[in-house]
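User: Sequence recovery, please. Input:
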């Protein structure tokens, strides 16, 4: 995936909104259905990142069917606060189109392409909530993911620049802040969940290792630590994102 300027701006806007607490907590039927669709969606992402075409097909099909419930019930007449959003129906339709494309790719055995296609669903749902002043824990997960992607995609390029270690240290500082937000903003039922606690600790440890390598000005260690950020996050996202 490439990181466009507009994508970075959206990420910054979301991070600022989350940190200032200006968004409303989810308490509406549309967001509830969106969250219900998020579980099968995460599984679809997970399965398209594996090697089993059959499992990926089942997962993407289930995710598509779950989203279809939201589309059928609310696409024409969404409940508040989405009833004031002129782009709501278009966003719902876009997710449907993404699932259709991903299904074609899975059936063709193109699991990696399907996985990359499905990433768009996360962005569309996040944009829908952001436009309508709604926040859920998934938005904090998405904010972390966006900053992590900047480091994963551009980390080596950043290190190659003059003062690259300093630049990547600043980017990692932002990632560390967003990792701490995952702990602070987690709902009460997750804060008392031992599995969540263990997976979140692994995420924090991966960031700490990158920070340590950067503070030691060890470029090779920093590259290795950066490459290991995705694993712990993916496990946390698959279960609780």
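Assistant: Recovered sequence (241 residues):
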């Amino acid at each position: 995936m490439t990181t466009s300027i507009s994508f970075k701006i959206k990420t910054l806007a979301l991070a600022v909104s989350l940190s200032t607490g200006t968004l409303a907590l989810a308490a509406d039927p549309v967001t509830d259905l969106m969250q219900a669709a998020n579980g099968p969606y995460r599984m679809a992402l997970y399965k398209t990142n594996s090697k089993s075409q059959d499992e990926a097909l089942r997962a993407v099909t289930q995710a598509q069917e779950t989203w279809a419930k939201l589309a059928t019930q609310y696409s024409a007449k969404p409940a508040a606060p989405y009833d004031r959003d002129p782009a709501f129906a278009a966003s719902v339709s876009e997710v449907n189109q993404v699932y259709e494309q991903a299904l074609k790719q899975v059936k063709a055995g193109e699991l990696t392409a399907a996985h990359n296609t499905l990433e768009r669903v996360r962005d569309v749902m996040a944009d829908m909530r952001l436009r309508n002043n709604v926040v859920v824990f998934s938005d904090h997960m998405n904010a972390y993911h966006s900053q992590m992607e900047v480091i994963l995609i551009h980390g080596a390029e950043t290190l190659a620049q003059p003062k690259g270690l300093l630049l990547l240290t600043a980017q990692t500082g932002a990632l560390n802040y967003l990792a701490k937000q995952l702990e602070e903003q987690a709902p009460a039922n997750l804060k008392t969940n031992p599995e969540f606690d263990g997976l979140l600790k692994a995420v924090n440890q991966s960031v700490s290792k990158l920070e340590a390598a950067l503070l030691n000005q060890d470029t090779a260690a920093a590259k290795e630590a950066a490459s290991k950020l995705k694993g712990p996050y993916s496990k946390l996202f698959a279960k609780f994102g």
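The longest strand covers residues 24-25.
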